User: What shape does this take?
Amino acid sequence: KEQMFCSEKDYRRWEKDLYHATEADLREMLNYISNYSLYAYKEEIKQGYITIEGGHRVGVAGQTVLVDGKIAGISPIMFLNIRIAHEKCGCARKILPLIRQRDSIYNTLILSMPGAGKTTLLRDSIRALSNGEAYGIRLKVCVVDERSEIAGCFRGQPQLLIRSMSPQIIAVDELGAESDFYAVEQALNCGSRVLGTIHAGNMKELSEKPYLKRWMERRLFQRFIFLEKETNGRRKMQVYDEHMERITC
Assistant: This one.
């Protein structure tokens, strides 16, 4: 599908017909999406979101409440952003042969700016690897999904994929904190393969992030997939090996 864009002039012309949500609207919406039990989502709200049935996510923003320098909550909540979760089955088909290593995969990182499709690509890769679609064999994939982005967990139940343990592959979304990198190194030392995502605007940033630079020097990862969203809304993929040489996709 072609993605439609409107100019500022068009937006100004349509602005008069837009509905401006009131404080009462936001309050009622919060009550509705939380099934009138907003307190039950306290931990998620501290991280800036609420996950609802279907794996969809409602981002929340407002005035943060700090306790000992840490976010203890958001009150009042003044902004909501609804993000519709969806699967795009088959979007990982092109890259799966390029990350295969015998009956498993190379340690692989998917990189892009926010909104370019890292999580969608990761989710489809997990699906194909675990159900045998990728290589004709079913691989055990453990999904580390702290923020419920990959599986879209609602009340503890994955909405978008199935989890399994004793993993051959560990899949993790949005590596960023120092503890994340330490945990990945532990997983690699235990013999599991890692398939993860990380924010990066270009390949050069890999050498500018301390932990990634160390990984590259030690060649812990052998495949890097860079995603870029073009102006027409389509995604462009570039795959590199551990020597930063381009692999044809």
Observations:
- The longest strand covers residues 70-83.
